[in-house]
Prior knowledge:
By secondary structure, this protein is α+β, with helices and mostly antiparallel strands. It is about 25% helix and about 30% strand. Helix 5 crosses helix 7 (about 285-295).
Amino acid sequence: MNPLTIFEDFLHISRPSDHEQEICTYLCHFAEEHNLEYTTDKFYNVIIKRKSNNGSDDTIILQGHTDMVCMSENNYDFTSQGIDWYIEDGYYKARGTTLGADNGIGCSIILAILGNNELKVPSIEAVFTTQEETTMIGAKNLDYSQLTGNKLISIDGTTEGVIDVSCAGMVSIRVSKRVTYEPQEKKTYKLKISGLKGGHSGTDIDKNRGNAIKVACDILHNISDIQLVTIKGGSKENVIPSTCECVFTSNEPIIISDKYKRQYPSIAIELNETDTCLKAISLTNTKIILDFIYKLPIEVLTYYQDRPQTSLNLGVIDVDDETINIDISIRSSKKEEEEKHIKEVANLANNLDFQLVDRKPFFSFVENSFLRDKLVETYEKMYNQKVVLEHVHAGLEGGIFKEHLKDLDICVISPNLYDIHSVKERVEIASVKRVYDWLVETLKEL
Length: 446
């Protein structure tokens, strides 16, 4: 079977996080068509099992997630339609939206293996989880008693020839403030920050892409008589925000430093006077919000060797029902640092409501891994290229699987994906074929 043909099916199916019903139905039909045992649950997780046909007593877990990050340029309705995709220069791409190759291509590779009866492979337990991009509620509520394998290959990485051998955990925090409004007669302005690259708050956090919310609030923080009217930026806590818009009032001259253009060449900063607003958020409430964001360290906080170990991302700010909500994520592969920076954010938010919303575990590097050794050996033999072992600064479901299956040997692989979680997302077609062949040959060896 061709994984690309299956991926094109995925592209036609609506599958935002928390809307995985349709793709769940597709997976169940696939299992039925190929006479494979399967189960599903109320979270729309699907487990499909294929029995060994090569005489092996081993069982391998293959894993991917069915949901996708939904970003668009023009308020695309992901809940009612698939992706407007095309092929260009050897890549699958999307018109003005995320593509969903993260993790649709991984799921497609797994299905292509399940559906090819000619392959001589050990028993496979294929697990397709839901809401990985948001709450990981699928993996958290999976019935792990159905799984017997002690080796897991997840196809949820980003780069061919790289094996993710550990991952960071992530803590989701919401800081909020119930605000009061008051009449005002100052001039009203609209500030818009755009043009930043955005990206994944783990894998791209060290690439100096800028944070639109942080830039906007840094500009506003220097205005002494400022009062916010509205502010909106970002879309998800695990995405670096590329845009932010706010309306505010002030009688001061508004001066914007050119340092932002020097630091982020692609940035666009628009400031225009607009129709006068009759009311605005109080000066005190505005200052509390802006002071909090101004002091918030939105960056890589610590490194281990040459890679991020702990980081903080400010993902979303919005006003809803007279409450300003700020969504923050802290990623770390070290428990002590995670706890330290949670406390630091809580201390900065002493005049705000602080809520720890969610916590996703990490999994650590293990010195001895039969699965890793076999993947490395097979890839280097097939393609005469060295495999890179990566300690990824992103949350992966392997951390949750590891909590439930204590002796699990975990490796994460992928074809080449670029600019995931953004409208520039694309997947290299030739790489999909190579990774599929790599996985098949590895399974034959197990």
